[in-house]
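Hi F.,

I've been meaning to write this up properly since the lab meeting, where we talked about keeping a consistent format for the predictions we share between groups. The idea is simple: the sequence comes first, exactly as it goes in, then the structure tokens exactly as they come out, then a line or two of notes. No screenshots and no reformatting. I'm using this chain as the first example so we have something concrete to point to.
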Amino acid sequence: MKKKIAKIISFVGNPLVLSVLAAVYANFQRFEVRQALILTGILLLVGVGPVFWYINRRVNAGQYADHDVSARTKRPSLYLFAMGILAVLIAVLYFTHQPRHVISGAVAAWLLAAASFLVNFKTKTSLHTGYAFLIGFLTLSVSFSAGMGLIGFAFLVGWSRVALGRHTLQEVFIGASLGATIGCLFYQTMLV
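Output, unedited:
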């Protein structure tokens, strides 16, 4: 039962899944339906879709053992691809004149990928946990209760990653620290 619960939490806490869920919530809280749909479409087509495609292609080709990209030695290629996609996403958001706080959220996501890439030279970090904390802190600007709920959920994501044997407690702590730090730094820019 414990593993089943951990798998569900880990799936929802996957950075691609959680970022879409949080963005849909934030977009429909802050914008009219048309603008919310445009922003969600940009996120899916320019950000999440290409990263999902890249990971899936690598798994199917046998280059990654799983969709979590659990092997530290395989992660640099994922980080570099994700950083490139996030840079394109930032450019699309900027050149389509999207709100500053939306662009700031994408910059925060890029910084977390870059920090995780650098940490990966020494040890693996939990991207699930890092992005869960980042998303939680950024969501505080939309709704304090939703943001606090997501921060609480981020702790569960960290637990799930250890329970499933995907990460050590140290790797989860590093991911949480990076995500929370970047989230706190960007929280103020999201209030506009």
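Notes:
The two ends are 43 Å apart (CA to CA).
The mean pLDDT is 94.

If this format works for you, I'll send the rest the same way.

G.
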